[in-house]
Design a protein that fits this description.
Helix content of chain B: over 70%
Largest interface: A-B, 17 and 18 residues
Radius of gyration of chain A: 19 Å
Number of strands of chain A: 0
Order of helices and strands of chain B: HH
Oligomer: heterodimer
Structural class of chain A: mainly alpha
Largest sheet of chain B: none
Distance between the termini of chain A: 23 Å
Distance between the termini of chain B: 12 Å
Shape of chain A: globular
Number of strands of chain B: 0
Helix content of chain A: over 70%
Number of helices of chain A: 13
Structural class of chain B: mainly alpha
Chain lengths: 290, 68
């Protein structure tokens, strides 16, 4: 992989990890469409992905640095006390409950799912499915809005009728967490399905995005940290990879800032249409390319 | 009483998870692993370690609820 390709992949991963458009789907599709010769399944590619994920996780920690300090303190306080007394303690326990199903499904199914579906064709098909899911989530949400806030005069007012992340039920947190495992399928977006799950659980768009990003951070960071020994033991062009990771972190930081602002009144629809269109175009290009 | 039974059940579950974590780390258990020849399955061991901690937290919540 050349330096330009590494930097491009870093930028792509950082930006698409948090946008509900599937980073894995794009990472499988774009190199294939550009006829790049490196293979995602190659063992030497793993250290590269590890660093990109660490860059993204670092950016997410930075965005929510004050909240994470509060969440970690609240986690230990509530765990030792055996009782939840503050919203931040509830959020900490919700994140634990949401992370467990994703961790179980990720650890036991990752290898099987990735080896089954790691082809550009599968990624294109799942990208279309992801688009339809995003549009489906918003259709259901519009019905809920008509029921919950029929007299709202603006989108912001409409959103205020829904809940904050701390108010979600533990069952819903577990379901949203389990949805993360769908992102093991290339083309299905982790942030997309978790934001969608949050919307179905009655969260505001912005709160669903916050919960999704908070939920993703430990999983992404753990996946990266666990692979560090492999990274240190392999002979990889570390400087190039670190540069790509920094770029991924920067892109993830800007994406998170943009999305949190966007979801004050924005919806998942544009990303749904983008994924459906990108999936169809990719499928056509893969089918008819010379 | 119900809270107490639940707390005991969760402690037992935590012990089972710890045992599984040890077995995966030592490479004795090979169920659902990507590389059956690996000496240690660290990821699986960490997962079961986290599950053990979560079970102990659940037990503490069940115990405290009963005390209240």
């Amino acid at each position: 992989m050349s330096l330009a390709q590494a930097l491009f992949m870093g930028l792509l991963q950082g930006a698409t990890e948090l946008f509900p458009v599937s980073s894995l789907g794009h990472a499988v599709l774009i190199p294939s469409l550009l006829h790049w010769s490196f293979k995602q399944s190659d063992p030497s590619f793993v250290p590269f992905l590890v660093l990109l994920h660490l860059g993204t996780a670092g950016a997410l920690f930075f965005v929510y640095r004050t909240q994470w300090v509060e969440i970690i303190k609240s986690f230990f306080t509530a765990a030792l006390r055996g009782r939840i007394e503050k919203p931040s303690e509830r959020l900490a326990m919700l994140l634990l409950v949401g992370t467990i199903p994703a961790g179980i499904l990720g650890v036991f199914l990752e290898h099987q799912l990735k080896s089954l579906f790691a082809s550009p064709f599968a990624a294109a098909i799942f990208l279309i499915v992801n688009g339809l899911l995003m549009l489906g989530f918003e259709t259901l949400r519009r019905r809920a809005e008509a029921r919950v806030a029929p007299t709202a005069r603006s989108r912001v007012e409409q959103e205020e009728s829904f809940a904050a992340a701390e108010q979600i039920s533990f069952k819903a947190a577990a379901l949203v967490g389990a949805c993360q495992a769908l992102a093991l399928l290339p083309g299905i977006s982790r942030s997309g399905v978790t934001i969608g799950g949050g919307l179905l659980s009655g969260l505001r768009h912005q709160e669903a995005a916050r919960f999704s990003f908070l939920l993703a951070t430990p999983i992404i960071a753990a996946a990266g940290v666990l692979e560090i020994p492999q990274l240190l033991s392999s002979s990889v062009p570390l400087a190039e990879y670190v540069a790509a990771a920094v770029l991924a972190g920067l892109a993830a930081y800007l994406s998170a800032r943009f999305l949190l602002r966007y979801f004050r009144s924005g919806r998942l629809d544009p990303y749904g249409w983008y994924c459906a269109a990108a999936g169809v175009i990719s499928l056509a290009l893969l089918t008819f390319r010379p | 009483m119900k809270g107490n039974n639940l707390a005991v059940a969760l402690v037992v579950l935590a012990v089972v998870f710890l045992l599984l974590a040890g077995l995966y780390y030592e490479g004795v258990l090979q169920i659902f692993v990507s590389d059956p020849h690996a000496k240690h399955h660290t990821t699986h061991a960490i997962l079961f370690g986290v599950l053990a901690i979560a079970s102990l937290i659940g037990a503490n919540f069940a115990r405290a609820k009963r005390a209240a």
